[in-house]
Each structure stands twice: as C-alpha cells, then as structure tokens.
Design a protein that fits this description.
There is one protein chain. By secondary structure, this protein is mostly helical. It contains 16 helices and no strands. The longest helix has about 40 residues. α14 crosses α15 and α15 runs antiparallel to α16. It is about 70% helix and about 0% strand.
Length: about 350
C-alpha cells in the first residue's frame, strides 16, 4: 500500500504542473491585465474593458508607445514602472518558472491590490468556506445514507414513493433559488424574522459566552448550509438507494439469507461495504464542489465573505497572485482528496488491493 500512496503522491506533481501551465497560458490571451486595471482607474475609474472595446482614437503618445488601451496621456516611464512592479517586465516563461519555484516552497506572494499575502487572505476567508463545505457535506451524508438504505430496503412501498417525490423536487430546485426562498421565508422577507440576513457571526460575537458563541454561529449558518445541502442531499440519496438496491438483488445476499442471517446482519455485514464504494467515490467531487464551486452564489446571497467571492473578485480585477495561488492550493486539495478516497475504499472493504493493479 505504501508504494501505491507514493506513486499517487508523485503523480500529483505533473498533474499540478499541467493545471498551472494551461491556466497560465490562457491568462496570457485574456485582455485587461492588472496593469490595464490600474491605468483604467487612473484615467477616471471606468471599467478596463470599456477601453479595450473602443475609444482608441483618443489615445495619446504614451498609449501608442506602451500598447495599453487605457494609457491616455501617461508617460511611458510610468507604465514601465508599473510593469516592473507587477513583474511583467520579464518574458512569460521566466515569470511562470519563477512562480512555480515560489509555489514549490508554498510562497504565494502578495495580492496586487490588497497589500496582504495570499496565504493570509485565504486564511481570512477560509472560515466561511469551511462552514459551507464541511457542514453541507457532513449533513448530506448523514441524511442521505440512512434514507437511501431505507428506500432500497422498502423499494416500491409508499415510503419509497413519497420520499422519492421529495428528493426529485429538491434535486430540481437550483441552490440559489432555494437560498432566496429561505431568505424571503425566514430572514425578514415577507414572512418570518427568525434567522439573520447576513454574516457568519453577530457584531457582539467577541463579548458572548462560549455557549452563546456556539448558538450564534449555528444561528447564522443555518440558512446558508441548508441552501448548500439541498441539491447534494438529493443526488446522494438516489445514488445510495440505487447502489444498495443493486447489491441487494445479487446472489450472495440470497445465500446469506438462506443461511439464517438476520436482515440487519446481511445489510450491514455484507451489502454495506460493497454498496458504499460508489457512494464514497463521490465524496471528493461533492466536497470540492460545495467547498469551492457552489459557494459563490450562496456567499453572495447571504453576504458572506468567503473563498468563492475571493476567487471571483480576483478574476475580475486580474489579481494574478490570488488567482494562481488559490488555483494551486485548491487543485492540490482536490488531488489529496482523491487519494483519501482510495484509502477509504480499503477501510470500507479490506479486500481491495491497489498494489496489485498495473500502473
């Protein structure tokens, strides 16, 4: 097993390198870099993309010599200094190699526009994303697995029918629409004022007792976590049911029952470890999607300042250290989660042996 883990860890290096090369190359062709962002702000605070789209007839000599659409009347020396500060005075290959050398030492640099290191910025936003990702994934599994098993055991019953209706409706409702519905219903919209409208904690959080802090935290995260969980819970329930249903219909289950084993012994002693493999395989994708992908809309609706909004704002402002630093970190987390999934396979079913697979 140790050799397999070592191979997986070594494979992470070319995978990460490939991800960074592709995204770095794509960025080179995207208009409106950080230099143009600064120039657009200096020239009146307009959107940098307006200068790219038009207005070229009014460009002054500085713009013509620099090649920046927003450099109206600015001296070339100033533009050259901006390029030097952002590191664009070097060729792309040199910039990429320098960036990867820093990332190998987990030095992600400093944000272009916030005067704070990328690591500190990510750590500052991390509590929101951890709250959404961890609790949403945990609750989805705690609800979906028992419910999916129950539906499989009672397949075709009234319980299976009406729970399937609820699951299908939950799966069909977009997360952002359900979040808005929760706000309208329970956060001071047209009905009830039960939960807060925004934020992760109250303004007086530091003055609260430890027990009151826990209650305040739960009070604030309830609606965002429910909105993040709804679609994940629905899909995972159906996946669990179908997986268990397939295993229940196999011959070894009939044989185990014929030997006089109780239904619970058959279900949790034999079926569980086989059926759970496909459920466990979806854990990294579910966690990463909730943790990183689906958090932007939920964070925006509930006014939470997390990694989703950080990534979006970094992309809009072309804050490359934040963009590539978070991309590197999140890709590494995703790869590590894949390895953890394989290790969990062995924990659920010790018969699995990755060492015997051909590489």
């Amino acid at each position: 097993m140790g050799a397999y883990v070592l191979r997986r860890l070594l494979l992470m290096i070319p995978t990460l390198l490939g991800i960074m090369i592709i995204n770095f190359a794509l960025v080179q062709f995207v208009p409106g870099g950080p230099v143009e962002q600064v120039l657009a702000q200096l020239e009146g605070g307009g959107d940098v993309f307006e200068g790219i789209a038009g207005g070229g007839s009014e460009l002054a000599t500085g713009a013509e010599t620099s090649g920046y659409a927003g450099a109206r009347g600015l001296p070339p020396e100033f533009i050259a200094e901006l390029e030097r500060q952002f590191g664009f005075d070097k060729p792309p290959l040199e910039r990429f190699l320098n960036m990867m050398w820093d990332y190998m030492r987990f030095d992600f640099g400093e944000s272009y526009f916030r005067s704070i290191s990328v690591v500190d910025l990510v750590l500052e936003k991390m509590p929101v994303s951890i709250t959404l990702g961890l609790w949403s994934t945990l609750i989805a599994y705690l609800i979906s697995i028992p419910l999916g098993i129950r539906k499989a055991v009672r397949d075709g019953s009234r319980f299976d029918t009406w729970t399937s209706g609820i699951v299908i409706v939950a799966y069909a409702i977009p997360g952002f629409l359900f979040a808005i519905l929760l706000l309208v219903m329970f956060a001071g919209g047209s009905y009830f004022q039960i939960f807060p409208l925004r934020g992760l904690t109250s303004d007086n959080f530091d003055q609260l007792s430890p027990l009151a802090k826990v209650g305040d935290y739960i009070w604030h995260i309830t609606l965002p976590v429910v909105a993040s969980t709804i679609s994940a819970f629905a899909g995972l329930t159906l996946l669990t049911k179908n997986s268990f249903l397939e295993e229940i219909r196999k011959q070894y289950v009939t044989t185990a029952k014929a030997k006089g084993l109780r239904e619970s012994q058959v279900l949790y002693g034999h079926v569980f470890r086989n059926a759970m493999l496909i459920v466990i395989s979806g854990f990294p994708a579910l966690f990463v999607s909730v943790f990183f992908g689906g958090s932007l809309i939920i964070e925006t609706i509930f006014s939470l300042d997390g990694l989703g909004r950080l990534g979006f704002e970094a992309a809009v402002s072309r804050d490359y250290p934040v963009m590539f630093g978070t991309l590197f970190t999140f890709s590494l987390i995703g790869l590590v989660m894949g390895l953890i999934t394989d290790l969990t396979y062995i924990w659920v079913d010790p018969r699995i042996d990755f060492e015997s697979r051909e590489t």
